[in-house]
Design goal:
globular; six-stranded antiparallel sheet; mainly beta
């Protein structure tokens, strides 16, 4: 499971995911060869860190837009994904990395299809009949 990630900073709209081990056999007990597992388009994992979001352009810039003063801070559109979510993402957008002898995946927010979150505030029984 993920270790101390305090020194690792995720940039922009990217998400750091601890990949789910995946299934190497079917529910009936049939073992799947590695070539079948590698061809899957979607994979899942747990979100362990998120970037600050998509940076917004500074519309209040002076004539010299490249010079940034200490008082002007970059503003971001925050991500919808939160640490602790279980995310399903497209493998073609994923980048595998190894950090402190653990395998992680970096995925841009556009590569994430859906997240599962333990949020009990939404009651779907009123919507789904």
């Amino acid at each position: 499971m993920p270790r101390n990630l305090d020194k690792l900073k995720v940039i922009g709209d990217r998400v750091l995911i601890y990949p789910d081990s995946g299934q190497d056999r079917t529910s009936s007990g049939l073992y799947l060869p590695p070539t079948v597992i590698e061809k899957e388009l979607v994979q899942g994992g747990y979100v362990v860190a998120v970037g600050p979001g998509t940076p917004l352009a500074n519309t209040e810039a002076d004539d010299d837009a490249w010079q940034q003063s200490e008082s002007s801070k970059i503003k971001y559109i925050p991500l919808e994904i939160e640490v602790g979510d279980y995310a399903l993402y497209l493998k073609k957008f994923a980048i595998d990395i190894k950090y402190q002898n653990e395998k992680y995946i970096i995925v841009p927010m556009s590569g994430i299809l859906v997240v599962e979150r333990d949020d009990e505030s939404l009651d779907l029984t009123k919507i789904l009949k």
